[in-house]
Fold this sequence. Notes:
Blueprint: H1 2-88, E1 114-119, E2 128-131, E3 138-143, H2 145-161, E4 168-173, E5 194-197, H3 202-221, H4 228-235, E6 242-248, H5 255-267, E7 273-278, E8 288-294, E9 297-300, E10 303-307, H6 313-328, E11 354-361, E12 367-373, E13 379-382, H7 389-403, E14 409-415, E15 438-443, H8 449-472, H9 478-484, E16 492-498, H10 501-504, H11 509-528, E17 530-536, H12 539-546, H13 549-552, E18 557-560, E19 582-586, E20 595-599, H14 606-618, E21 628-631, H15 642-645, E22 659-665, E23 672-676, E24 685-688, H16 692-707, E25 716-721, H17 727-737, E26 741-744, H18 749-761, E27 770-775, H19 781-785, E28 787-788, E29 791-792, H20 793-803, E30 809-815, H21 818-825, E31 837-840, H22 849-852, E32 868-872, E33 880-883
Parallel strand pairs: 3-7, 3-8, 4-5, 4-6, 6-7, 13-17, 13-18, 14-15, 14-16, 15-21, 16-17, 24-30, 24-31, 25-26, 25-27, 27-30
Antiparallel strand pairs: 1-2, 1-10, 8-9, 9-10, 11-12, 18-19, 19-20, 22-23, 22-33, 28-29, 31-32, 32-33
The structure holds adenosine-5'-triphosphate.
Adenosine-5'-triphosphate binds at residues 333, 383, 385-391, 537, 581, 600-602, 604-605.
Domain FtsK: 365-570
Keywords: ATP-binding, Cell cycle, Cell division, Nucleotide-binding
Protein name: Cell division protein FtsK
Amino acid sequence: MADRRNQLVTRVRELLAEALGASRDRSAAAQLALTAARERAVRVRQAAAGVPERVGAERDRRLAEIDSRHAARLTVLAREAAEAASREAPGAGSADWPGWRPTPAQRAEAPGATRIGTVRLTGTAPVPALVPLLDAGHVALDGDADGCAAVVAALLLRSLGRAAPGTVRLVGYDPDRLGGGLAGFAPLGPAGLLTFVGPGGLGRLLDDLVEQIRRINETVLAGEHSSLRELAAATGRRPEPWRVAVLLGGEELSRHERGQLDRVVRAGVACGVHLIVRGVPVPDEPSVTRVTVTADGARIGRLPVRLDPSPPATLVTETCRDIASVVSAGPAPTPFTDLLPPADQMWREDSATGLTAPIGEGPQGRPVLLTLGDYPPHALIGGPSGTGKTNLIFAWIGALAARYSPAELEFYLLDFKEGVSFARFAKGRRDPSWLPHMRLVGINVNTDREFGLALLRFLAEELRRRADAAKKHEVTKLAELRQVDPTGHWPRIVAVVDEFQMLLAGRDAVAREAADLLEDLARRGRSQGIHLVLASQDVRGIEALWGRPALVAQFTLRIALPKALRILAERNDAAQSLPKFHAVVNAESGLTEGNQVARIPSASDWETWSDLQHRLWRMRPAEASPARLFDGDAVPRLADAPDFRALRAPEVGTPRGPVALLGEIIDVQARSAVLRLPRAPGRNLAVLGTRVDEACAVLDAAARSLARQHRPGSARFSIACLDPDADPAARALYEDLADDAAWYDEETVAELVAETAGALGAPGATGAPHYLLLFAVDAAAGTLAARTGRATGLEHLRRILHDGPERRTHVLAWWRGVARMRADLGGTGARTDQIGAWVALDTHGGELGPSLYPGSGGPDWYPRPWRGLFFDRAVHRTGQTIIPYGPAR
Ligand SMILES: Nc1ncnc2c1ncn2[C@@H]1O[C@H](COP(=O)(O)OP(=O)(O)OP(=O)(O)O)[C@@H](O)[C@H]1O
């Protein structure tokens, strides 16, 4: 039993020991866990203690990051805003005052907004704070007086700086004399760009603005454009100024005034009428920008703004003074390009019924048109020297030439005054271009009225040709002729004669014939598309026409430049008050009701004109040739003469009717005066007068042209020179004719005539042609008075003159006076019919009396340098004025 108990005890002990061990383990494990937990708790606590610090840093970091991103974005936005602002308000619209200067907008460009300060933003580059004014809105100001004055000054100066001088007009209404920023603009007053309205004048001012708006809407915009801004963008023209009214306080507005103010606010912007208002209630309209000035800045609407300082007083006054002086100097001319169609529209017009082109800008900015057609058919232009006649002719020709192709329109132009400006229509040495429509340009024709006559004759011939063609096709007018003969060349012709009164001056045959031709062309040219444009600076010119009322009546289109007299109808004095570079255009024969005032662009300066001429020249048809240029001051050259170039020697034998060219005829083609030398009595030439160079030139051209028609060795040229002054010219000829020429002088001339006269009787004497070129033959009278054989030298000479031509022996001799020639021919009563042709130099018409010229008094010939009168009794009824060819070398 004891054992059992002992065993049991032992067993219990073991179990207890086991249990104790296990609990110790668990306790130790628990301890461990507890320690670990404690440690964790410490760590967690420690960690927990660190957490807010990290989160805050993160938050701060994120915040800082956001801040800097925000700042960068802000900088970008501010920069973009500033860039946009300077685009919105370019140049003078936003430039800082130091270095500020006017930068007027181009014609089609908008003036843009005006800067008054900068937007309040910290930490960024300044962003201009803009206010729309010209073409964009009105400004209502409120608050601090000085600040408002600074804003008004900035708005006005920047607006003036963005517009061409004179195109911004200011009106001030300042009844309480607050000044309000307007004082510095006073220099604009004398130029009419700033006016003040006194107390009580607001009603009238508003009425006037409303009236302007009504007028502009009705007559300028006329339903075609919604605003002046749009008109300017579409046409490049700004026909009306901007009108800016600055209204500074005053009494309360009446109902009528309020109504008018509302109208201006609503409708003014489209018409360039703007208000800057302070102390006057303005209705809330989108066009009104409200600026409130506070002690520390301002607000544009709700946008806080830091105001710019006032523009420096000297800058304001100097700018205004400059603008005023430009305006007082006269309006800037409109550009010539205003008269031209766009490049791709050139030469698109049809001239069948007439020619229409603008000549300038009317007061409403609309083009003033000139038309030539059935009515009005012809034009008269008048204006004292320097008022722009030449320029107007250029402008008109340019406007027409750009619209009508050379197949539709041709020009003939004659300038009777001295000067070369019209020469540029023809091909020049400096500029190879020419105006493709121009057929003839006559310059420096002041003393060569024959050239004017030649033009009129040419036109009369063209008129006849057209009338015949019309008759053949049984029509009466050009438009109909062109319809029935579509392939014919029937351009309208515009003949311009500047200083045309020169043509009609004098009571001689030239003046009479010119007036008759003019009258005929004026009457009948209308229906055949031939139009005359006569210009004159001289009242007498017009009066010369007045004597022929039938002629004047045809010139229904009148163009009067400033101070022109007698161009318009008697009681129409519109030209007297015309500003510079303007013209009254009147298609009603000058009656007042037909007046239209046009501002004429500058067209005649070299660059402006060449731009157009080059463009048209490049467009010219392949077969186009340059205009014939006749320059009264130029000396033609034989080598260039078409008639000379056309001369040829026959393959065999001698020419049947050789010709001697004596000079250039004054006519529309550069033809030569031709002396035919067939085998017929009287075919000799006398050159009469004391002018050595001209006499030599005539004989020289005659000899050279004859020589060109003979093969070398087939003709004989005997040159006798008896005046030492003629020696160089005669020798040059002798040398150039080489083996065909023989030289004679005072010693040997008697031999020449004796031998030549002797040969006339010899058998076979009609062999080779023989030309005797006798320079100053009268100087040999003494020598020739002596006998050589059975007769004197003079008798031999007379025999040659008499019998020579039939035997191909012709005398071309220069006598230094008619009396001397007569003496050589046998005395005063001697016959002169062996002198079949003559050229008179400084020999008066009267001396050429009945034996040399038909009729009793001799020809109407007034000698002048380097001109001669050629008369060939075999072919001429009247003398022909010629220009001797210049020396060959
Ligand atoms: N519309 C214009 N705009 C600008 N300048 C002009 C205009 N018209 C003329 N002029 C300038 O005025 C000057 C005189 O003009 P122009 O030669 O045309 O006058 P004119 O009447 O023909 O004179 P004159 O009869 O003495 O030749 C020229 O220098 C010309 O460039």
